[in-house]
């Protein structure tokens, strides 16, 4: 028999992924009480179906290829991966899709877990249909936070929606390696999983409407494309899918150039959108807006503290509804979600103490200012792409006089890193203030160059001062010196 249970907390967080956990942790540290509502696994998409398992699938192939690229090591290693140990390695990092560790962390931290599906029913009010069959009426004294992550965007292709395709969840939790594998989408998830499965033994084809990695400089994307081709991946770029047909246990994908690709598994990796469906947002005045990628959908507008604009007031204050991470429409990256979540948690605490109103100072601890200036991201293919900040077009859209300097990565550190190392680097410079606006590195091992660039951009380090940041020899970081020399320092 269903029982209605009423509970009250200072803060209610909907979603126990990385962003939700970080909001709840910050408000607990600030002396408030918090409940977190989750219908799936505590830890969220990143821990079980995205960042962690995909990198666990990629890393063995990258390590093997790295050894094969170094004379003296190449003759001592195997030529191909054994899929079974790789899948076992992935299972270890996902804890075999068991969240007991996450549940224990919530308990140890003092965060109450309510298992169930949440729906906002009014200002500061959340109804939960519990997995235990009970209904929970939760009330927040200070804030409700939406941290529900994102969901895949599925294109409207004849035959696709009725096909048993994979999204990234299916690919990252695969129990076996398909013989023939077709990937729809040329973004980060698509290229990473294409390479992972190619190195595990799949015959992989990729289909992209434009070029690969269109959000990154073309020189960097071309290096990734070359790496995929070297692993046997067939690339169909600038190509649309006309239809998908399911043939018992296989698929036929027809392209607009007449080619037909046959596959045992089909991955749809064509983007993601904030997961805001069925949350009851209409009950607090947040209505659907037109969506160019599909039917009307809710889109939240938040300030730098995560406060949702336009939410109905409960008669005392409109400062009660927040969003963090993917749900807020911030960059769909775990580290940026956690960063904005920490700011949101601290803002909630500050407002509960009367120390913060609507307009905090930029770069304060309660704002996620970096989301506008320096968002670092890494494509963990082999070669890697690591990028942060603005590209030239973005800088010019903001009225900045931007220039670039770029060159191949060819230093002693790269030559020692791998035989026939191929890499590329670019800096985007504010020509008036002579500070960095953006940076991109492409090549094996370049992810570890990224944080230095992030610090330089966030700290607005003058190029005259950056010249004195001496790179160690012999490392990949020598490329910084070469870039500054070419710029004219």
What does this structure look like?
Helices cover 29% and strands 26% of the residues. The longest helix has 19 residues, at 334-352. The strands form six sheets. The chain has a five-stranded mixed barrel with strand order 1-2-3-4-5. Strands 18-19-22-21-20 form a five-stranded antiparallel β-sheet, with helices on both faces. The protein has a four-stranded parallel β-sheet with strand order 9-8-7-13. The protein has three domains: 4-43 and 99-152 and 274-371, 3-Layer(bba) Sandwich (FAD/NAD(P)-binding domain); 168-270, 3-Layer(bba) Sandwich (FAD/NAD(P)-binding domain); 383-487, FAD/NAD-linked reductase, C-terminal dimerisation domain (Enolase-like, domain 1). The mean pLDDT is 94. With 489 residues, the protein is α/β, with parallel strands linked by helices. It has helices at residues 18-29, 44-49, 51-68, 83-93, 100-109, 168-172, 188-199, 218-230, 334-352, 392-397, 412-417, 450-458, 463-466, 478-487, and strands at residues 4-14, 34-38, 112-122, 125-130, 135-146, 150-152, 180-184, 203-208, 234-237, 241-247, 250-255, 260-263, 265-268, 272-274, 289-291, 294-297, 321-323, 377-379, 384-389, 402-408, 424-430, 435-443. Helix 1 (18-29) packs parallel to helix 9, helix 3 (51-68) packs across helix 4 and helix 3 packs across helix 7.
């Amino acid at each position: 028999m269903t029982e209605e249970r009423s509970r009250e907390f200072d803060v209610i967080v909907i979603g126990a992924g990385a962003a939700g956990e970080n909001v709840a942790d910050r408000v607990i540290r600030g002396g408030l009480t918090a409940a977190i509502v989750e219908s799936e696994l505590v830890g969220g998409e990143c821990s079980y179906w995205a960042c962690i398992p995909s990198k666990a699938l990629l890393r063995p192939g990258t390590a093997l290829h790295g050894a094969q690229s170094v004379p003296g090591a190449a003759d001592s290693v195997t030529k191909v991966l054994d899929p079974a140990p790789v899948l076992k390695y992935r299972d270890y990092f996902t804890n075999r899709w068991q969240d007991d560790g996450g549940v224990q962390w919530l308990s140890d931290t003092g965060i109450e877990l309510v298992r169930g599906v949440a729906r906002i029913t009014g200002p500061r009010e959340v109804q939960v249909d519990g997995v235990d069959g009970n209904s929970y009426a939760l009330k927040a004294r200070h804030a409700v936070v939406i941290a529900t992550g994102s969901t895949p965007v599925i294109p409207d292709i004849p035959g696709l929606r009725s096909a048993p395709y994979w999204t990234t969840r299916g690919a990252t939790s695969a129990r076996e390696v398909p013989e023939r594998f077709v990937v729809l989408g040329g973004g980060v998830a698509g290229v990473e999983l294409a390479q992972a499965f190619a190195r595990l033994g799949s015959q992989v084809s990729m289909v992209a409407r434009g070029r690969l990695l269109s959000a990154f400089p073309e020189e960097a994307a071309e290096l990734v494309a070359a790496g995929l081709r070297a692993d046997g991946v067939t690339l169909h770029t600038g190509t649309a899918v006309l239809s998908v047909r399911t043939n018992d246990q296989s698929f036929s994908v027809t392209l607009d150039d007449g080619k037909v690709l046959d596959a045992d598994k089909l991955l749809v990796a064509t983007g993601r959108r904030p997961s805001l469906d069925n949350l009851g947002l209409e009950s607090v005045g947040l209505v659907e807006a037109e969506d160019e990628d599909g039917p009307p959908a809710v889109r939240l507008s938040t300030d730098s503290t995560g406060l949702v604009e336009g939410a109905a007031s409960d008669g005392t204050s409109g400062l009660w509804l927040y969003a963090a991470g993917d749900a807020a429409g911030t960059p769909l990256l775990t580290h940026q979600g956690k960063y904005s979540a920490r700011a949101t948690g601290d803002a909630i605490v500050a407002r509960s103490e009367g120390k913060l109103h609507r307009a905090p100072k930029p770069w304060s601890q309660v704002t996620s200012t970096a989301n506008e200036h320096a968002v670092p991201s890494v494509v963990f293919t082999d070669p890697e792409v690591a990028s942060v900040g603005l590209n030239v077009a973005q800088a010019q859209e903001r009225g900045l006089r931007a220039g670039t300097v770029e060159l191949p990565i060819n230093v002693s550190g790269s030559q020692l890193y791998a035989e026939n190392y191929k890499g590329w680097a670019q800096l985007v410079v504010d020509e008036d203030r002579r500070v960095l606006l953006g940076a991109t590195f492409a090549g094996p091992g370049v992810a570890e160059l990224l944080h230095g660039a992030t610090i330089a951009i966030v700290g607005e380090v003058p190029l005259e001062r950056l010249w004195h940041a001496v790179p160690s020899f012999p490392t990949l970081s020598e490329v910084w010196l070469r870039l500054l020399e070419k710029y004219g320092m």
